[in-house]
Amino acid sequence: MKRTRKFAPTIAAMLILSCGTARMWADPGPDDWIELPVVINLYKGVNVTEDEAKGYIERANEVLKQAKIKLKVAKTNTDFEVGNGDANQAETEDAEAIKKGKEELKDHTEGKGIKINFCNQPIDGRPGTNGWAIHKTPVVFVRKNSDAEKEKEKTGNTVAHEICHVLTIDYDLYDAEFIKRLMYGRDSRTGTELTDAEKEEIRKEAAKRGKVEKKEAPAAPSQNKKQETALGYNSSDDSPNDVSGVKDASITSLEGDESYEMRLVLGGAFAPGQSGNYYFLLDTDNNPDTGVIIGDIVGIERAVQIFVPPGAPFAQISAFDTLNPSNTFNTMGTVILEHKFYEGDDGAPVGSTPYGHVIDWSIPIAFFEPAPSDLVSVIVGAGPMGAPGFDRFTMILDRFAGDRGPHVSTDVGLVDAAAGEAFVIFGSEFTPGAVLEVTLDDALIGAVVADPAGNFTMLMTLDPATPTDAYFLTVQDPADGAFGFAVIEVIGLAGCPADLSGAVDPNDPNYGVPDGVVDAADFFYYLDQFVAGNLAVADLTGSVDPNDPSYGVPDGMLDAADFFYYLDLFVAGCP
């Protein structure tokens, strides 16, 4: 039996009976690792090859691994064109390029991930600009760095830098003291450091846009972390680039969350005295024959009204159970003007320009229960809730898991590669018969064929020389870009304790970075740290006597014992 009721616009004026403002969604835990799918566009005529682009992603991954984040290429497009079809990105072409980028993500990665555009000039007429990105918008623009000797390193660093802007870091740093930081905004492009706060921030956003796996205890295999996600783009939107243009929206949660984190992205900035009305309409059972009618939209069980008062840095959020008008929820959201950030050579324009408004808020998941369907249809648009406008689009909230599709796990969480230990990789939900590539971080280590059910079991051993570390173990179908991953700890061959630095100069990016060789750079680096009182590096032993139990055990102080202990290591060299 068809059960529908007309939803009167006057309900928006009802007394709100319950309220809340507390943030109740969980951030990724310290053992959660994240892989972000990326789609690459190579502009027609660009001076970047597919192999070079792959190398830049590998370099970006080396940088982002400190935050337990990895980029995984799902698709590469060559001869990409916008506007006049050349290899440069004109500012008048930005809207078209961003729209096409979002469409690619919607078509190939279920809206997740990030689109990376490689062009000769990210801003046409500004050849010194290395790249740009818009805070929270999943499309970035990058050029090949002009430093021939360090082209891969610097271009990959630019990719990582711009990715961080997408993942909500809303600043660049310009003072010389920050030259080693990844968010340094000038041309050095050698800085790679992220603060703990920056790592935490980008992981929150990456978890929404990627796959999340938990690194378990060594005796247990990696396993999927549940994720409920909707990421939608108004790909048919031809409205003006202002606040009447609804561009993007999202509803996300992770395992253990009490609330959905919700977001609405508008096309422009609010003019003085201007207000705005927007809505999310949820068909929680994915059935148009149930629920109520709102305007010309049928089957709605839950509705969320977003009102931005004139000049306010906040939004008034009202959520309604359309089948039970006494069940309401009220909260506040933040209204933030997002910026386009660009960085470049010394002397080139750097900084940011305003782009559009983003509204963020949260609503308890329990408010949307019960929801009998795993897939929930969500209509997002502009206008009063009782009379919705026609600048709108539909997205799907996947309540079962944000990472439907391939899954990968292992029979152990710790692998002793140095001892030749074998372990088992399990995979499921791949394309039947697909030839799959297995990578450890970005190194190809094997291949396996999915069985007729799309599953596989593979016995694997690693190169004994694999360095001791934690790794992304990824299995991908290169034909369609689909992938799954696990996280494993590897015990490799013993390292070289005397290898501390690849340069003597503190301003060199290799200063303090082991390079596999023991030479004068290592000795002088240790001496610098010893004189500076850096216990983390220079405190090596409590005794000079190899027969003393405190030999080789840091004792919390620096003295001659530490210096001579390092001297012994230096003379011994690398194994």
Description:
Helices cover 16% and strands 34% of the residues. The strands form 4 sheets. It has a 17-stranded mixed beta sheet that branches. Residues 1-25 have low confidence and may be disordered. The protein has 4 domains: 11-23 and 228-398; 32-209, Collagenase (Catalytic Domain), CATH 3.40.390; 405-491, Macroglobulin (MG2) domain (Immunoglobulin-like); 495-575, no CATH class. The chain is α+β, with helices and mostly antiparallel strands and 575 residues long. Strand 16 and strand 17 form a beta hairpin.
Question: What are the salient characteristics of this protein?
Answer:
five-stranded mixed β-sheet; 27 strands; Immunoglobulin-like; 4 domains; globular; 575 residues; alpha+beta; 17-stranded mixed β-sheet
